[in-house]
Every structure is written in C-alpha cells, then in structure tokens.
Amino acid sequence: MSDLMDEIQQLIKPNLRKRLYVAFSYPVAPVEEIVPHIPEHLRYMMEFEDQVFLSGPFIAEGQLVGEGMTVLHASSAGEAARFMENEPFIKRGLRRFELKLWELREGTVSIRTRLSDTRFDLG
What we know:
Layout: H1 2-12, E1 18-27, H2 31-34, H3 38-47, E2 52-57, E3 68-72, H4 77-85, H5 88-91, E4 95-104, E5 111-114, E6 119-122
C-alpha cells in the first residue's frame, strides 16, 4: 500500500491543487416564489463577482429554476458560508446550500478574446 500511496503522491505533485469552495444550491420553495427574486440574485452575484470563480444553474429543458453550483474564492469555509448565506435566494429561505471544499487538479482552460466586440470563446 505504501508504494501505491507514493505513486499517487508523485502523480499529483505537479497538479495545480488550488483549493476552492463549491456551493451546491437547491430550491426549497415553489418556482413562483423564486422567480420574482431572480433580478436581486443576479445583482448580488454581479456585485460580488470578484469572490466567484464560476457559477450557474444546472440546466433542465423547460425548467426555469433548479439546482445550481457556485465555486468561490474564499480563505475559509466560514467566509464561503457567509457569502452564500447573504445570497438573496438563501437569505429569503427560497433555496438551501451545501458547501464542499474542492481541490482543482486537472483540466484545460483556453480563452480566446476578441476585444473589439467583447466576444470570447471558452474552450
């Protein structure tokens, strides 16, 4: 087992290993109660976008409101929880969230930006 653990450690050693907090959010109120607060939610997310690495809903055809995921830049679980507790849907009791510490290790991100018309491709 020791050899296996050594191999694993060697394989992940060069990984980025950036730690982030991921909040999974779930509706707890009917869609009709949530929809009027979407603009408030969007304004909150845009105002504090510097604390957000990535965020968005899980998409289901024909469903306006569903589960979501927000990946946060935070120095602690408490800081991440405070961000989520102040999110308007959660603050109003319309959604609940589950917070997990996540370590970013693998993947590829490519961004091509065309500044003249504020267009980009994320690949």
